[in-house]
Amino acid sequence: MRRKKWIFIPLAVPAVYLTLRAVARFVRRRHRFPIPEFMAEVIDNPLRRKFVQPPDEMPGRLGLKPGMRVLEVGPGSGTYTAAVARYLGPAGHLTSIDIEPKMIERTRARIAVEGLANVDARIADVFALPFEDGTFDAVFMIGVIGEIPSVERAAEEFARVLKPGGVLAFSELWPDPDYPHPHELEAWIMPAGFEPVTLERGFLSYYYVFKRG
Fold first, then answer.
1. Same domain flag for 96 and 84
2. DSSP helix/strand/coil, 112
3. Count of CB atoms situated within 10 Å of the CB of 56
4. Exposed e or buried b for every residue in 107-120, given b needs 16+ CB within 10 A?
5. How far apart are alpha carbons 4 and 89 in whole angstroms?
6. Do the Cβ atoms of 170 and 198 come closer than 8 Å?
């Protein structure tokens, strides 16, 4: 009898996880808000970096090019911030923003430790970006868009600060309770004047690049 009980444990674990994820999605879809700072280390884990969203592969998959002027929304622990800054090189520049001051403190610390001179981090609201029209060649975010209460409003601001033909890129992770399906992104983003360019599906993740018309 005990052996039979042990058989159900491998089935119970994913069942519990899927149930908790479904509950989290239900709550998050009705009450969107940025993740708290203490969750940054949980989300930025070695399994994610190695197998699902490798930092060094991220810039190319998001349509970025060396020398670009780029805006990052929601840097988290700064892992991808550092990878993108290195990729852009000394001729490029990365500005990283978050509405949560502690996230920006964390990112600034990461920048200082790595000695990156082509990146700055600041507090900013996606609904009122403190940049002039056409400032950036690209805007990207990784596992962030689902946290924004009104993506349509944010998309209009992204369009404003991007140059004509500029890149708006996303990478989303399936285990994230805020994970949006690609067709949801299209419905949110395209009315602001963006066109789909590439959609690359990976293991438990995808990369979606849009272009400002």
1. yes
2. helix
3. 12
4. bbebbeeeebebbb
5. 58
6. no
Q: How far apart are CA 202 and CA 100, in angstroms?
A: 29
Alpha-carbon span 71 to 135, nearest angstrom: 9
Q: Could you report the per-residue pLDDT of 114-157, keeping only the tens digit for each? A: 999 999 999 999 999 999 999 999 999 999 999 999 999 999 99
**Each residue's pLDDT tens digit, 159-184:** 999 999 999 999 998 877 889 999 99
94: buried, middle or exposed (CB in 10 Å: 19+, 13-18, 0-12)?
buried
> What is the distance, to the nearest Å, from the Cα of residue 2 to the centroid of all Cα atoms in its chain?
45
User: Residue 207 belongs to what domain range?
Assistant: 32-212
User: For residue 182, which of 193, 164, 169 has the smallest C-alpha distance?
Assistant: 169
Q: Which residue has the tokens 């438990």?
A: 204
Tell me: do 12 and 40 sit in the same domain: no
CA 18 to chain centre: 22
Comparing CA positions, the residue from 71, 132, 117, 79 lying closest to residue 96 is: 71
- Which of 157, 163, 154, 155 minimizes the C-alpha distance to 213? 163
The overall pTM is greater than 0.90: no
Give me the phi and psi of 102, to 5 degrees please: -65, -30
Q: Answer yes or no: do 12 and 86 share one domain.
A: no
Into how many domains does the chain fold?
2
Residue 192 CB contacts under 8 Å (≥ 6 apart), including other chains: 152, 155, 156, 158, 159
Give the model confidence (pLDDT) of 72-126 as tens digits.
Answer: 999 988 999 999 999 999 999 999 999 999 999 999 999 999 999 999 999 999 9
